[in-house]
Amino acid sequence: xxxxxxxxxxxxxxxxxxGGAISAVIAGILFGPLMPLTTSPLAFQSPExxxxxxxxxxxxxxxxSFTLNKIDRLNEAIRIKDSISPLxxxxxxxxxxxxxxxxxxxxxxxxxxxIKFVNIEGIEKYVNPSLIKEIVLEFTEELExxxxxxxxFSSSHNEIILVCxxxxxxxxxxxxxxxxxxxxxxxxxxxxQVIIQxxxxxxxxxxxxxxxxxxKARIAREQGETPHSxxxxxDPAFDEKRKEIYExxxxxxxxxxxxxxFLKFQPIISLDNNTITGVETLIRWNRGEExxxxxxxxxxxxxxxxxxxxxxxxxxxxxxxxxQLWKDKNFNLSCAINLTALxxxxxxxxxxxxxxxxxxxxxxxxxxxxxxxxxxxxxxLYVRELLDKLRKEGFSLSIDDFGTGYNSLLSLNEIPFxxxxxxxxxxxRLTEKDIQELVRGIIVYAHQIGKTVIAEGxxxxxxxxxLKELNCDRVxxxxxxxxxxxxxxxxxxxxxxx
Length: 498
Prior knowledge:
- By secondary structure, this protein is α/β, with parallel strands linked by helices.
- The chain has helices spanning 5-31, 47-82, 93-105, 120-123, 129-146, 170-179, 210-221, 236-257, 295-305, 308-328, 341-344, 349-359, 373-378, 380-393, 424-428, 433-448, 461-469, 486-497, and strands at residues 110-117, 151-156, 159-164, 185-187, 190-192, 196-203, 230-233, 261-270, 276-285, 334-338, 367-372, 396-402, 419-422, 452-455, 474-475.
- The protein folds into 3 domains: 2-82, no CATH class; 93-234, Reverse transcriptase/Diguanylate cyclase domain (Alpha-Beta Plaits, 2-Layer Sandwich), CATH 3.30.70; 243-497, EAL domain (TIM Barrel, Alpha-Beta Barrel).
- It contains 18 helices and 15 strands.
- A hairpin with a 5-residue loop joins strand 8 (261-270) and strand 9.
């Protein structure tokens, strides 16, 4: 009979005071006469006991309902606290996801704007955090003024999300707000340029998850150049390219382990005696049935992910193996290998390189390392010292793609290098008089300071003839040969030499 408390408690849980009171009265009427206070069970109780039991049922239901209501209020307070940004007072990321879900269920079209203070984390290191908070709050107040009928969320301390129900005028409004921050703001002792980037995704009823809609607005924002404010509309092509980059970066480590990378060699020809003097070593990626990825793309990704050091070690090791084989066949060749600043900044690079070549009994003078102009000019004292050390040991250094980077002939005599490689951009336009004179000047100056000049991207007999007239030392390009596998290069070398 005491199990009657269970339906009273359940009624209080589902229907609170009203439901609990009704069930308490019913239980009191039905079971009160049989539930003993002082007499034996199942004996009919006196009216006083009956009334007391009815009171106990009611008190139990009321206290249960009161406790449950208090728990509900506490949970609601926690829920609200969890959905509010303490910085701005706006609803946060959790609330945003719920709101987007509701909007999408109602089949409404809307626009999501991801507004990010790009450089705020950097600014925070130098000014009082309260000043940063002031900037963010001032910005959100402007948003409220312009977008009083829309929903504003604070996704993180440096990102505001705006959900607009109409596409008609929000772009002009947000652009005006961004423009108001285009001049530096005085913060403490600093004049700071606040960079604000806005990404826009227009949702038009596609079958998507709320998190995908939010992320597309963020991806749109990433279409912008980093140090500049701006507004960017989501571009599916950019998103696909970005996904491809992540897929490539994720598979590059496995590619190294599974030996999917391989080398090709492009001949370098001396214009003085028309002989093959060396090769440029180029890495390629055999992805099987997967989409082809050019070296320009995967090398850049490798630099961004830090995998470039492993790739360079692979290239140097494989190139050294090949040079050892060609040495045994009496191929008198130099081997040019591209490096980035990351390898040079690796403290172990120099010693590992020497150990590798010593173990293969190869002469350091057979190897030439190609670096861009910016590496030579902008990477500091340590790199310059390492470059000097490489040259003293007998390695050659070349400036690759000359003319597309730092562009200062005046600084060439201050840079530790041996070979200057003129970029194909100039070779392609070599028939133009002004370009021809520019190339002539580069060659003359390089020779005056004792350097060798190689022209890249030579594709026609006319270009070869002009470069001979300009006293260029060596050339490489499709006119002579594309990059070849080791076996194909051996055939080419033997055929060319004969």
